[in-house]
Amino acid sequence: MTFRAFNQKYLEPGSQYLMILGIVALCQPWNLFLHRYGMTMTLVGLIAFMVATKIPRDAQPDESSPS
User: Fold this and answer.
1) Cα dihedral angle (16, 21, 26, 30), rounded to 10 degrees?
2) Which of 13, 26, 35, 38 has an alpha carbon 20 to 30 Å from 64's alpha carbon atom?
3) What pLDDT score was predicted for residue 63?
4) Higher-confidence residue: 28 or 58?
5) What angle do CA 42, 50, 31 make, to 5 degrees?
6) SS3 for 5?
7) Which residues contact 16 (CB under 8 A, 6 or more apart)?
8) pLDDT(67) > 60
9) CB 26 within 8 Å of CB 35
10) What confidence tier does 47 reach under pLDDT thresholds 50, 70, 90?
11) What are the TM regions of this chain, as residue ranges (predicted)?
């Protein structure tokens, strides 16, 4: 597995889930630890997503053209 494939399969979705988890952590009132670090989790996820989307994807063969 190349780094580009790893990035596309794991890093991009992982950073999106981290941003969502950070927003949920900010909105919940029960756990002070999650509320305290919710903004940090959101920012780390945002920065990771911005970096991960700058890595170009693997070149996929065009499936619409007949071979």
Assistant:
1) 180
2) 13
3) 67
4) 28
5) 10
6) helix
7) 45, 49
8) no
9) yes
10) very high
11) 16-34
Every domain of the chain and the residues it spans: 29-54
User: Token digits for 46?
Assistant: 């945002």
Question: Are 53 and 13 in contact, with CB atoms under 8 Å apart?
Answer: no
Report long-range pairs for 10-16 (Cβ below 8 Å, ≥24 apart). 11/48, 11/52, 12/49, 12/52, 12/53, 14/48, 15/45, 15/46, 15/48, 15/49, 15/52, 16/45, 16/49
Query: What tokens appear for 21 in the block?
Result: 């988890």
Q: And the tokens for 66?
A: 């007949």
Global pTM reads 0.81
